[in-house]
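Per-record layout

source: Microbacterium saccharophilum
name: Fibronectin type-III domain-containing protein
length: 878
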Amino acid sequence: MRTPVRTTLAAAVAAVALVLPAQAAVGAPPAVTAGGDRPPAATTGIQLESLDRGLVALSTTGGIHLSWRLLKSEAYGAAATGLTGADFAVYRDGARIALVTDSTTFVDAAGTGRSSYRVAPVLAGREGEPSPAVTPSAQPAIDIPLTVPAGGTTPAGEAYTYSANDVSVGDVDGDGAYEYVVKWDPSNSKDVSQVGYTGPVFIDTYELDGTLLNRIELGVNIRAGAHYTQFLVYDFDGDGKSETILKTAPGTKSVQYRADGTVAREKFITMPREDRRAGFSHDDDYRMSAPDYRDHLIEVFRGWSERAEVVSGQWPATLEEAFGAPVTHDYPLSPESAAELVDYFIDVYAPSRSARNVLRAFEGFIVDGPEYLTVFDGATGAELETVRYEPGRGDDGLLWGDYAMARIEPGNRVDRFLSGVAYLDGTHPSAIFARGYYTRSTVATYDWDGRHLTQRWLVDSGHVPMTNPFNDGPHGRDGTDPEYGTLTTQGFHSLSAADVDGDGRQEIVYGSATLDDDGGLLYSSFDQLPAGSTAPGAQARLGHGDAMHVADIDPARPGLEIFTVHEGAMSAPYGTALRDAATGEVLFGAYSGRDTGRGMIGDVRTDVPGMEVWSSMPAGTEASGLLSATGDVLSPANPGTNMSIRWAGDLTTQIVNGAQAVTPTIDDWTRGTLLTASGTLTNNGTKGNPALVADVLGDWREELLVRTADSTALRMYLSSEPTTHKLYTLMHDPQYRVETARQQTTYNQPAYTSFHLASGMDFSRVPLHAAPLPVAAPGIRSDRTGVTVTWQPPAEPGTEELTGYVVTLTPERGKSAGKGNGHGPKPLVTTAAADARSVTFTSVPAGRWSATVVAVSGAGSSAASDPSATVVVTKSRG
């Protein structure tokens, strides 16, 4: 069950109080008299997962390496090398063998592969609940068995098989442990610019032991490829269990499995009533063959003269004029004339623009049919609600610029999708789904309350006006919307959520632009084109790019920074740039004149303050090589750019290398290779992305999740490198948690914390949020004035000021000294101010009573104290 991080005093009372009998008035202590001062209400905090201890044990040459989570609620302060708060008692085979104070790792040199381990938190000398027992793994990794979907054959007769691709995590059943959500990609998965059929996509949910809980079969009407399916796994409604939200279509169904692997239930999603009445069904297949595409174009061309853009004079009056050919047909076009012009377009005009325009072979795309957004139960896979995907495609990409440039690519710009999660209100997570970023750019956000998916806001740049949709350059030009028009061409193949302006609510960093939490455009970054560019001196967008990193890169500056690379070549002012995340101001950058496709950040040089940044800038040019957080060139060489990982114990950053058929490795810039993940592969071709890099088990270090070469298992590697640094699980940092959920999106990017995480970091700048510890058992006495309860403040008040106490008198059932009504008196509850040390209950029915006290602060409520001694009230007081 998820525990709210913050609570009000009223909420704390509601949590512990039963309904009081009307006659049982509760007297107030001197500090809380009737009509007097009340403790101030606490603010509401951010909704995060309630995770278990995440204890893991690995057999190493030095002994049994143990690693476990420190929860954010257990961290109360900072020291030079880490956070302070809970220490941990380590148990082997039931006997306590250590008390660990400086980290959340321990090496038991005397342990064996048969030993059983538990750890228990120790706060203010009080030992808490121990973790479930674990036994050591003989390998440095954990294999999660996977159920590989059966392959198939496309309508073109091409066979395909499946491999595990992106992975996300969520606690789908509320037990405090993560489940693993795996996307299966067919071997014929395509980029949106590539022609051909694909097999369907599957989304599986697994327990750590490989139990398959459910499978979402997206069906034939969702094409397979990095740009098409973005799936969000998160506890959106705060019930302690994660949902899965993703784009669906007719033919999408979910399958729930029993523990023995047999099918328990399968069901198609619910199509809107108006779609069913219109004749749409789950048997529909919208994949286009080459003849289908020709027929589609005929219908598009027949309607040319009725298009609003043609009627208004914005576009040429005839298709021949659009193609630069003599007008030879009457309008509106007859079916025969439209067919003739389609053949001319496919066979003559398109190839004249580019030899790569082989539209007679255009097949496998989906440019028609309903599009939906569906919420699925994370544990069962059951559909919870399906709504229309907004905005819809509108057309096959004609308005989006897919026919305008030399390379004619129907279904390309229109089908570029992104997703993410953001705490837009500072408390609850919202889902983000975006469509388009080269020309028309749209971002929609949604809230799920457990019953309904409600759109919070939708941002739309509007289409980029073109004078000729078959010959124009729509990139880098404004859309039609007066507020959001400059959003066009600024989006990347990913997005991020971070509180860039420090207001407690996360913004959406949309590449070279940022949207405020309310959907307003915070900024869209432009700069002057330099000498050698297409238009020196002109203002231009920083523009689209493939890699973006939002973090506290330079701790000497306030706030966060954004490091980006850009592919605009001679039309972009920078090939790489570091910007202030709050304003979009470029702090440093360099022009490249070419597509700068890769970039990364991380602390790879401990002798240099802050994180380092690097990119694929041309060798020998300005800003090539390894750069400091202030832009100084440190070396001409630089690490890889596929994915980073926090693996080492010294807070530095390592790089995951290995793409395509190359075995993945974890490499340190100064120490070399730290791990070779034999028998595994990365994903997404030359991108070389692991399935996931995230802090999913053990201490604050990140795990490497990669598929085995045959995809029969997901292999999770855990660091056993010693560390003397103590930090709560990164998943309890809101920015890191939402960025982990976003990592699966398109061009996978690392997740970063909201604080500077690097060697030499200042732990006092790590955000803390911990409720008070329980107070000691209170005192209690009964006299003629009533029943008085006394207490002392908690040994640890938490990370925010105390706002008061909730005091509860509880009767012993069945031992009432009065006559009662057969059920005995009910508990009595009152509140007290933060400086109070006693309360007196003046209206107490006869009976045997004990008291408990709960301390309340801006960070939440403590657990109830141990009960006091029992007092006997022989006659009702008051």
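summary: Residues 779-873 form a domain with the Immunoglobulin-like fold (CATH 2.60.40.10). Residues 705 and 716 are 4 Å apart (CA to CA).
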